[in-house]
Model the fold of this input.
Amino acid sequence: MIEIVILGSGGSIPSLGRNHPSIVVRHTGWNLMFDCGEDTQRQFERAGLGQNKKMAIFITHTHADHLLGLGGLLLRFSLLGRIRPLDIYGPAELIEYVKVNQKTINLGTTFKTTVYGIKSGTLFESDHLAVRAFEVDHRGLAFGYEVSYQRPTGEFLPEKAKSLDVPEGPLWGKLSDGESIALDDGREIRSEEVTGPRPHPLKIVYTGDTRPCDSLRRAAESADILISEAMYTSDHSDLAEERGHMTASSAAELAKEANVKLLVLTHYSPRYETGGPILDEARAIFPDAVLAEDFMRIILNPDGTYRVLHPDHTI
Done:
């Protein structure tokens, strides 16, 4: 199971109950954070995500509303005794941004912190998780991110294991996890001999800020979940084009064309208050759309089904 936690769903100006953009994808002990808007540190703590987990941070672009929370988050982790290393990925300007913070506000960390200036391509692979960056069409260099999880094997087939005289117990677990094993009689049993076909990988795509573009369409193809900014309704499509953003209708049309299962609309302007006009416009084109809320959690199951858990507003 993969869990997505929305820490911030707001537009360029945060409002009561809607923080600046940040989401965390959680799986196999990893916290993968995408964008780190202002005051993400407090959202992270309130969500109970654990400050010493395995973690990497991916920044879409170096505009303030997607980045200003990074320094505070690093400081919080240091003050609370984080010891695990932390890698941060984003446009090359991010390296200078962190260096300036280190020099001017004494932003040292008690743990190893490495910042990478990136290009399009695969950036991260661990525990069958992968993160790929792709350029999008905003103002200046900006990226979207594709998160995929490929289960190492298909369904474990106990009858096949029994027919090969593999004793039930830990060896079954190793085979189920994709490992080969050696039996006492000298035979080697490969995982694929006792498992079914590998399923299609699970895929989550996060846009950051962007106009509709071909790179996003390609990345979103058959995605289980597309988390897309939707700053404006089509009534303000001129502003969307000028400022490099999506409208709710353009996000919905892209999700429909790409055969996405679930569209999560986020980073919408505070002019729409609770977001009703954004959601209505998108659902008229793509019914399987939800409006992101701070502390919303989305559970993506191994078979590609999902559950949307709306937040407890007493958090």
About this structure: The mean pLDDT is 94.
